[in-house]
């Protein structure tokens, strides 16, 4: 007859949950402070689409349809983020959502998610450089496209090759620039809506 062993639990330990240490966490250090992490999260949620790609949807469908689409999309992402937060808090792993897919479902899924994320990031960088060229081309025609591409690639490489603290500081100030740009766009849009445009037409919410 097999005997089950029971571990004595003190009064102090009854309200706590024992969680195993995250695998592959040896050698990881926290080099980013709180303000850098907060601005990384905010800046990461502000993408190129908000400044460039949104114009096509706005011109084609109008502000109401764009608002509905963004609302539904945000609700979907909120559900996904909530699931990721619950899994991370319950059983944290080193490697983010890629290792979560392998831990909670299957290693093959984690492998596929990792390559999918790599391809996404690899294609995102040329897309962002293209968007920068589009914006610069709108204001000036004498800026060489090749020079902009080389400058962006060199800056990307330098920021990622430097120490984590310098990387976090660069991302902190770049994220502040994104936030300021959003408020500048809000102010610019408000001024044009109340009549501060070349036609002096206070179009307000008219579409």
UniProtKB/TrEMBL annotation:
A single cellular component GO annotation: membrane
TM stretches of this protein: 39-60, 66-84, 104-125, 145-167, 179-197
Localization of this protein: Membrane
GO molecular function terms attached to this record: amino acid transmembrane transporter activity
Membrane-related topology note: Multi-pass membrane protein
Amino acid permease/ SLC12A domain ranges (all copies): 37-207
Alphabetical list of Gene3D superfamilies matching this protein: Amino acid/polyamine transporter I (1.20.1740.10)
InterPro entries: AA-permease/SLC12A_dom, APC_YAT
UniProt keyword annotations, A-Z: Membrane, Transmembrane, Transmembrane helix
Domain of life: Eukaryota
Keyword Transmembrane helix: yes
Protein name per the record: Amino acid permease/ SLC12A domain-containing protein
């Amino acid at each position: 007859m097999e005997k089950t062993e029971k571990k004595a639990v003190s009064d102090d330990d009854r309200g706590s949950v024992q969680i195993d240490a995250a695998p592959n966490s040896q050698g990881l250090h926290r080099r980013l402070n709180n303000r850098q992490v907060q601005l990384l999260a905010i800046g990461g949620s502000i993408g190129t689409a908000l400044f460039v790609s949104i114009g096509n949807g706005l011109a084609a469908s109008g502000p109401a349809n764009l608002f509905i689409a963004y609302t539904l999309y945000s609700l979907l992402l909120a559900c996904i983020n909530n699931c990721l937060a619950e899994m991370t808090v319950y059983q944290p792993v080193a490697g983010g959502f890629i290792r979560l897919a392998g831990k909670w479902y299957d290693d093959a899924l984690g492998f596929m998610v990792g390559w999918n994320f790599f391809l996404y990031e690899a294609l995102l960088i040329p897309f962002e450089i293209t968007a920068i060229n589009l914006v610069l081309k709108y204001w000036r025609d004498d800026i060489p496209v090749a020079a902009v591409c080389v400058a962006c690639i060199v800056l990307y490489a330098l920021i990622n090759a430097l120490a984590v603290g310098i990387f976090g500081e660069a991302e902190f100030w770049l994220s502040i620039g994104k936030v300021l740009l959003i408020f500048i766009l809000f102010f610019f849009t408000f001024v044009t809506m109340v009549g501060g445009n070349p036609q002096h037409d206070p179009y307000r919410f008219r579409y």
